[in-house]
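Batch queue: ligand-bound targets. Current item pairs a single chain with adenosine-5'-triphosphate. No template structures supplied; prediction is de novo from sequence plus SMILES. Inputs echoed for audit trail.
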Amino acid sequence: MSLLEVKSIFKSFGGLQALRDINFSIHQGERVGIIGPNGAGKTTLFNVLSGFYAPDSGSVLLDGHDIRGKKPYQVVNLGLTRTWQLVKPFLGMTVMEAMIVPSFCHRARAIGTSSSRQKEEIVEILTKIGLGNKLWEEVDNLNQSELRLLDISRTMITHPKILLLDEPFSGLSRKETGNISQMILELNRRGLTLVIIEHRLKELMKLIQKVMVMHFGEKIAEGTPTEMVNDPKVIQAYLGERKSELGLA
Ligand SMILES: Nc1ncnc2c1ncn2[C@@H]1O[C@H](COP(=O)(O)OP(=O)(O)OP(=O)(O)O)[C@@H](O)[C@H]1O
Ligand SMILES: [Mg+2]
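Prediction returned. Tokens below.
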């Protein structure tokens, strides 16, 4: 059975058809990319998958559970967590406090560590991700890269089965992108399924096994990175001249 099964999703905003008949499935342990031009519907798709938007029609099955009518926190409790294209820092808190907030969700309490070990778990996550020396730092003082790392760290507290990352490399240097890539691969080695929206194609393509391409609310192609960069529809809709940058045959 697929971990995520998306069937014929439609979503419109007034007269704008943001998603049109989106179908795909993702298996446990996969690393999947989603690419496409600005406004293609990528973030809207994440909003539907994570319970922030109800689709007009269609269904999303998460590990066999229909998420129809579920609130975002209930979707988190079923094992799907997401990050945001624009980081959502908890300003006014320390890094430690920002990490404690998601630990109140049912899933974290049910399958996370006991409350007495909670601080250790947080320290462990932050150390692994490279924020071990920022525990008592105010979130307001973190730079863009640290905020992205903190967003990913917060998701770990909820022990997701599947993590959706919306442009995790946005605004980061090549070195910082490399660090987050290593982190993503490590999480995947431990069994986490990942779906990643990115415009930084060179970095993304090295990270994923399968990619879906969206354009004007539709999924226009799906395949391996090499298949996608050679697909005439994908080149016309999105890649254009950028194909040569990617270093894929
Ligand atoms: N809440 C909303 N209300 C009205 N229109 C919306 C809303 N959210 C998204 N849209 C529109 O839906 C379309 C798809 O937007 P979406 O943010 O999903 O694109 P995207 O593929 O994530 O683009 P980008 O690469 O720029 O992040 C766009 O035309 C956008 O303006
Ligand atoms: Mg987006």
